[in-house]
Design a protein that fits this description.
4 strands; Glutathione S-transferase Yfyf (Class Pi), Chain A, domain 2
């Protein structure tokens, strides 16, 4: 990882969405101090709630500013570490933000609802931001059938977030095993920063 003149502290737990943020940090080449936050009392402690009042990880503190939510962390790091070249160009900006937040919003909500056994009726679909699970997956599938990465042929930080959702979804079987999803996940798993970050979190996980 390249050096940075600023200080960045990363609050995480290896068994959490912090894996997404760690991958983003490695792609950005950011140097960071790590703070492992244990589930239970520590995550709900006064000290940690001062960082994230939701009592959840991940969070980063960079130059005195706190960023939470994985999609926001990815977008922030793309801008904060421009030498990594992972921020969108002007031509890529629309796709970058569209698919980053489509995945953070409709896709994640569709997956969560499905796991909870919730399925909106035809009338309720107007209230649900994702409409229904199959429609949301179809839209993401169609996008990934037409390009290698979110913004086209070039990997950007949006692929860390979108790719993590696809990668985890396939492994946990919360995503359908469609050809475009499998091919996309394979491209991402081959990246050095992906493998490096996963190795760090795997080493931090408690032995079963």
């Amino acid at each position: 990882m390249s050096s940075s003149p600023s200080t960045l502290t990363f609050y995480t737990n290896p068994m959490s969405r912090g894996q997404i943020a760690r991958w983003a940090l490695h792609e950005a080449g950011a140097e960071y101090d790590q703070r492992i936050v244990e589930y239970g009392d520590e995550m709900k402690s006064e000290d940690y709630l001062a960082i994230n009042p939701m009592g959840k990880v991940p969070a980063i503190v960079h130059n005195g500013k706190t960023v939470t939510e994985c999609a926001a962390i990815c977008a922030y790091l793309a801008d904060a570490f421009p030498d990594a070249g992972l921020a969108p160009t002007p031509e890529e900006r629309a796709d970058f933000y569209r698919w980053l937040f489509f995945t953070a919003g409709p896709i994640e909500q569709a997956v969560v609802d499905r796991n909870l056994g919730l399925s909106p009726t035809a009338e309720q679909e107007r209230m649900a931001g994702y409409g229904n699970y199959d429609r949301a997956m179809d839209v993401l599938d169609q996008m990934l059938q037409s390009r290698a990465y979110v913004c086209g042929d070039r990997f950007t930080m949006a692929d860390v977030y979108v790719g993590s959702q696809v990668d985890w979804g396939l492994q946990l079987k919360t995503f359908p095993a469609r050809d475009s999803f499998n091919a996309y996940a394979q491209r991402l798993r081959a990246r050095d920063a992906y493998k490096e970050s996963k190795a760090v979190d795997t080493a931090l996980m408690p032995e079963s």
